[in-house]
Amino acid sequence: MKLKFLSIALAIIFVGSIFQTQAQSVIKDDFKPSILNQPGQEYPQVNSQGYARFRVKASQADSIRVSLGLGGQGGTLLTKGADGFFTGTTAGPMDEGFHYYHLTIDGGVFNDPGALNYYGSVRWESGIEIPAHDQDFYALKDVPHGNVQQILFPSKSTNTSRRAFVYTPPGYGKDSKRYPVLYLQHGWGEDETAWSNQGRANLIMDNMIAEGKVKPFIIVMTYGMTNEVRFGGMRDFKIEGFQTVLIDELIPYLDANFRTLTDRNNRAMAGLSMGGMETHTITLNKPDVFAYYALLSGGTYNAEELKGKSQPKLIFLSAGSKERPDGVRNAATALKAAGYNAVSYVSENTAHEFLTWRRSLCELAPLLFK
Fold it and tell me: Domain tally for the chain?
């Protein structure tokens, strides 16, 4: 008798689990156009669960696959209809935040004509935004806004005029006030447009300044000369070229043309991913230039390599919870034990992607220039 009741109980649990799985797999039909679509374009769309739906007209094509994420691995195969439109929905919900993607149409790589384009993976890729539960901190709000301006600065070492984007906070230039500077680097495959376009660094700063959470500072974003290296080949990257451009050419130009505070204690360097590797190397090579270091999904420091150098006022280490969060936590703990002001931050439920880095900048900014 006990065995019979046990069998019935297990059957109920099993059937219940099937219904639960089926309920969880139901895709809500509340899709809306992505906020990163081209003007007037209805697709791609996202729903409240984080699914993405695509619709592309290619009547002469045989197959279309949507490849999402850095490098565009895997993908969602779209189905062709009699009207010549290919449609399809991701197999599961996507992580919150910004994602690159492209279309593979009959073996050729193309961008989605419905979406805006962003430079990543060493090409202009389509972009899609999955609304995040905490998106308020990088939202466009009715607050005083700073400016992001393009500058061209001379580079004797490369025999070119190089480009940078400079964020100046609200009120900059209205008086004689001078500001600290954060030099903020992109990752591999990206360029100097990444932090303001994909990262929304300017909106993050505007919102935090309006709330009184940060001391206003300038942000400088320039190309890190990283894309000459193939993906996965960071060991072959030589820092000397970019280090010369940054230290000997860009910083002097900024100090001569903007209202900057020019001492070490008012200068910071940070970078995401490969930009973190650049930050790590340059801050160790030039410890008297920067007093604040930040690696965003870009490795760690250890006390031994910092020994005997000018001590930084802050070391900030971050990663997504889907990366290797214990690495940044353990490194920060070890640095604290060695007497350094080290802070770790882990972005929950994100991987090697821009929501991790947006959140990291939001955590980093209030700690700078204290």
Answer: 2
Kindly state whether residue 6 falls inside one of the protein's structural domains: no
Check whether residue 152 and residue 261 sit in a common domain: yes
Q: Which amino acid is at 178?
A: R
Which alpha helices (H) appear in the chain, and where do they start and end? 2-25, 194-197, 201-210, 240-244, 251-257, 274-285, 303-306, 325-337, 354-364
Q: Which residues contact 171 (CB under 8 A, 6 or more apart)?
A: 144, 177, 216
Instruction: Give me 293's structure tokens.
Output: 């270091």
List pLDDT tens digits, range 167-204.
Answer: 999 999 999 999 999 999 999 999 999 999 999 999 99
CB atoms within 10 A of CB 239: 16
Residues 39 and 72 in one domain: yes
Residue 71's Cβ-count burial label (10 Å; 0-12, 13-18, 19+) is: middle
Note if the bond before 325 is cis, omega within 30 degrees.
no
Establish if 356 belongs to a structural domain.
yes
Looking at the domain assignment, is residue 25 inside a domain? Answer: no
Cα gap 180→215, rounded to integer Å:
9
- The span from the CA of 190 to the CA of 261, in Å, is 28
Q: Which domain holds residue 95?
A: 32-131
* Strand bridging mode 292-296 / 267-272: parallel
3-state secondary structure of 310: coil
Q: How far apart, in whole angstroms, are the C-alpha atoms of residue 179 and residue 151? A: 18
In terms of domains, do 307 and 236 share one?
yes
Q: Are 121 and 109 in contact (CB under 8 A)?
A: no
What's residue 231's pLDDT?
A: 66
- Does residue 352 form part of some domain? yes
Q: What is the share, in percent, of the chain residues with pLDDT greater than 90?
A: 87
Residue 332 class from Cβ within 10 Å (0-12 exposed, 13-18 middle, 19+ buried)?
buried
